[in-house]
Specification:
The chain has 253 residues and is mainly beta. The protein is built from two helices and 14 strands; from the N terminus they run H-E-E-E-E-E-E-E-E-E-E-E-E-E-H-E.
């Protein structure tokens, strides 16, 4: 019964994703838009993901490359840990994301598929749906559905705002709040509830955008990640409040 429910939920996710991609895509074919490529290299004091610290008190380097055309995009992203638990620096994660984004007036819609290639755990796959509204703080809701290794849903509500400090330098402020619904008995810490449903993690971030040439931008940043409840910290094994930061060099052409 539970397995049938998981399959039903996954099918619903696929249906909605297909409607967004093909429904929005029919209008985008007539638009004049050139292919675009962008990339970045981030050097950060640690790797934080949904409230978990995935580095071992070491600097991480995270390269990313995106190719986009008419709303469709392909991204590849990696994490290089400079001081893993065993051996020398190692590329221990490579993610591939296929996505489509469109907009209708102030409303933005998006859908995508993420493949997580992991060294320290089983590879995983997620589908996601995204909706945003272009107003103050640009509220953005993303719903992730794991379809392989960690059955469940992760919902994230993000807020962001950008301020122009000079003609070329901008300050970006953002925050996010996560809610997790686990369908996996093994995802929580031993001795706690079999499954988890509730608030998970939050983060606050500030970054500067400093153009260094026509194509390159330098962005120093500082972030704070924290569990949203004692239950989340204990049941999910989240890292306690963590302050981290670094710098991102990005380019586009």
């Amino acid at each position: 019964m539970e397995e049938n429910m998981r399959l039903r939920n996954t099918r619903i996710f696929f249906y909605i994703l297909t409607i967004i991609i093909f429904g929005g895509g029919l209008n985008s074919w007539a638009e004049e838009e050139n292919p675009a490529a962008s990339g970045s290299v981030a050097a950060l004091s640690k790797y934080m993901w949904r409230g978990y610290e995935l580095s071992d008190e070491s600097i991480v380097v995270q390269p990313s490359m995106t190719f986009a055309y008419k709303g469709f995009a392909f991204n590849t992203w990696g994490n290089l840990d400079t001081n893993p638990e065993e051996g020398d620096a190692a590329l221990n994660e490579t993610d591939l994301t296929f996505s489509y984004d469109t907009s209708r007036g102030p409303f933005g819609l998006g859908a995508g598929f993420i493949y997580y290639g992991l060294d320290s755990a089983d590879d995983s796959q997620e589908l996601y749906l995204k909706a945003s509204y272009a107003t103050l703080l640009t509220p953005t809701l993303i719903i992730y559905k794991d379809i392989k290794s960690f059955p469940g849903y992760y919902l994230n509500l993000g807020l962001s705002h950008s301020l122009s400090l000079t003609d070329s330098i901008a300050l970006s402020l953002s925050g996010g709040f996560g809610y997790y619904i686990s369908n996996d008995d093994d995802i929580v810490e031993e001795g706690t509830d079999d499954k988890y449903r509730g608030l998970q993690d939050g983060f606050l971030s500030a970054s500067l955008s400093i153009p260094v040439s026509k194509y390159f931008t330098l962005s120093p940043n500082l972030s704070y990640a924290f569990p949203l409840s004692d239950k989340a910290e204990k049941s999910l094994g989240l890292t306690s409040g963590e302050l981290f930061g670094g710098v991102v060099l990005s380019f586009s052409f």
